[in-house]
């Protein structure tokens, strides 16, 4: 934009000799020039933000693994449609928008500088004609490329009022030739603009634009005729190959070829032998609903007002030699429930850093009072079965919405012990080092807490834990996956871990039926 503005700001002898005699030249004084510069700066920033917003698409393009089955029409691999085509579509659209704005900036600048005027017909100096012709030619060259790329979008067309997905007979035998023809015409128009300065006139190039617009408006007539007179009278015959592409691609995209059909026979009788054969299943029939169970956990096992149970999850373990289904919930720390006097900056960022332990109970057992029959309860955690917890600290969870500092000179609150409190220090090797004053300044800016610059509680190995909500943290680490909305906690080797189900999804699988508007390819 800036280069085109500077080019359009040049003065020529041709301008001085006849333009000033025939037209009123507005002139580009300092005020107007500064206004132009400001406008160009704003437009450049907007273009930069637009490009920056597509960082994930470019990262996937750069780090792709080429391959995958080829589509049945063009023979292109899946990686082309997943990674290459979106980038090329964006780049050509981005470049076209940039050229359009450049033409506008240059044209307005030429008007102000006296290179362009109108009196019964358009008049341009040679410099303006050359510059604008090249820009318009580049624009049409980009449009030709976009028509070429548009061919591949036929594989994602919706036909029969949304009943089927992918290219059909009319798309392949009518629209595809139309796109080729339109690409050729636009390319010819681009060439006319490139050579027009040699002839001293733009009339042939402008005639090319008129022809292109007319053909573009008429381009849908041929496909409509093919659909009406060739396809509809013989629809089953013409569309069968493409329906097969649609079915086979959908099966592949959703990995449905491994489905097995099994027949289960039932006798309709329930006897002792049937109960014995299905003892494990019967023993794990869930009776507890998670909502009243969550309330019961909160009333019986919160221990302190600042502990809360955000969700109840299901898990399965071998307990005492038997396969058991249990329900469990993490005891997270909710800083907003700490007494008002204790809600200090030090407590929030340095001391109240983590939750503690969990509750677990079988899905189908209650006490005589109708309460959960706990397998694991209390602080520190006590287990009545061979399912023990040796590391009960919970630094990451579903309600840990604020950052905390660890490995500082202050001990962290661990858990309440009667009238006293137990304290601890973060034992793992995670978090971002606080380090130098520059890093402190950056953390202070990011967290909006400039007390970081002045506190004396940091030690040489002090760190900060950011993005502690499990869903947010995982999305920061692996942003290209599609996540289930419900992470769940498990016990393994005495430690507590969060598991987040994730899926690889894409919306550019040729011919595959889309799931709503979200995707048409998925793997777990």
Written overview of the protein:
Helix 7 (169-199) packs antiparallel against helix 8 (203-218) and helix 7 (169-199) packs antiparallel against helix 9 (221-231). This protein has two domains: 2-253, no CATH class; 289-523, no CATH class. The strands form nine sheets. Strands 5, 6, 7 and 9 form a four-stranded antiparallel beta sheet that branches. By secondary structure, it is of the alpha+beta class. The longest helix has 36 residues, at 78-113. Helices cover 45% and strands 16% of the residues. 27% of the residues are buried.
Which helices and strands occur, and which strands form pairs?
Layout (H helix, E strand, L loop, with lengths): L1 H7 L4 H10 L7 H23 L2 H8 L15 H36 L2 E3 L3 E3 L1 H28 L4 E2 L4 E2 L3 H31 L3 H16 L2 H11 L3 H19 L18 H6 L1 H5 L6 H12 L5 E3 L3 E7 L2 E12 L11 H7 L3 E2 L1 E5 L13 E2 L4 E2 L9 E2 L9 E3 L5 E6 L2 E5 L7 E2 L3 H11 L15 E3 L4 H8 L4 E2 L4 E5 L2 E5 L2 E5 L14 E3 L1
Antiparallel strand pairs: 1-2, 3-4, 5-7, 6-7, 7-9, 8-12, 10-11, 13-17, 14-15, 16-17, 18-21, 19-20, 21-22
Helix pairs in contact: 1-5, 4-5, 5-6, 6-7, 7-8, 7-9
């Amino acid at each position: 934009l800036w280069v085109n503005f500077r080019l359009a700001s040049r003065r020529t002898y041709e301008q001085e000799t006849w333009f000033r005699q025939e037209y009123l030249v507005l002139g580009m004084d300092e005020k107007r020039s500064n206004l132009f510069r400001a406008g160009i700066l704003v437009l450049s920033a907007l273009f930069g933000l637009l490009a920056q917003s597509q960082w994930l698409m470019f990262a996937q393009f750069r780090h792709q693994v080429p391959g995958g089955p080829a589509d049945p029409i063009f023979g292109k691999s899946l990686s082309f449609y997943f990674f290459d085509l979106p980038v090329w579509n964006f780049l050509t659209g981005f470049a076209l928008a940039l050229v359009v704005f450049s033409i506008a900036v240059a044209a307005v600048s030429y008007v102000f500088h006296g290179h362009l005027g109108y009196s019964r017909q358009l008049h341009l100096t040679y410099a303006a004609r050359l510059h604008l012709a090249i820009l318009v030619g580049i624009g049409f060259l980009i449009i030709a490329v976009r028509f070429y790329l548009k061919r591949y979008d036929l594989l994602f067309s919706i036909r029969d009022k949304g009943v089927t997905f992918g290219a059909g007979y009319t798309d392949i035998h009518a629209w595809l030739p139309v796109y080729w023809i339109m690409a050729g015409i636009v390319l010819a128009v681009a060439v006319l603009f490139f050579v027009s300065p040699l002839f001293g006139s733009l009339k042939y190039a402008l005639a090319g634009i008129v022809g292109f617009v007319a053909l573009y408006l008429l381009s849908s007539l041929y496909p409509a005729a093919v659909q009406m007179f060739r396809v509809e009278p013989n629809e089953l015959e013409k569309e069968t190959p493409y329906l097969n592409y649609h079915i086979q691609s959908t099966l592949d995209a959703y990995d449905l070829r491994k489905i097995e059909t099994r027949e289960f026979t039932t006798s309709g009788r329930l006897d002792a032998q049937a109960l014995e054969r299905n003892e494990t299943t019967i023993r794990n029939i869930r009776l507890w609903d998670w909502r009243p169970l969550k309330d019961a956990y909160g009333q019986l096992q919160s221990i302190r007002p600042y502990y809360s149970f955000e969700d109840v999850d299901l898990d399965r373990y071998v307990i005492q030699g038997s396969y058991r289904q249990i329900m469990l919930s993490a005891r997270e720390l909710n800083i907003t429930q700490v007494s008002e006097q204790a809600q200090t900056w030090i407590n929030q960022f340095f001391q109240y850093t983590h939750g503690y332990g969990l509750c677990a109970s079988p899905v189908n057992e209650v006490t005589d009072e109708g309460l959960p029959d706990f397998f694991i309860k209390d602080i520190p955690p006590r287990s009545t079965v061979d399912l023990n917890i040796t590391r009960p600290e919970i630094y990451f969870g579903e309600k840990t919405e604020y950052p905390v500092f660890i490995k500082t000179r202050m001990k962290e609150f661990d858990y309440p012990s009667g009238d006293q409190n137990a304290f601890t220090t973060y034992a793992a090797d995670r978090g971002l080092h606080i380090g130098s004053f520059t890093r402190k300044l950056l953390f202070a800016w990011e967290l909006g807490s400039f007390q970081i610059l002045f506190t004396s509680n940091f030690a040489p190995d002090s760190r900060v834990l950011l993005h502690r909500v499990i869903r947010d943290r995982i999305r920061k680490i692996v942003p290209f996956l599609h996540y289930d909305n419900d992470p769940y906690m498990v016990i393994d080797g005495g430690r507590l871990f969060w598991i987040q189900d994730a899926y690889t999804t894409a919306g550019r699988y040729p011919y595959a039926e889309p799931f709503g508007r979200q995707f048409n390819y998925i793997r777990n």
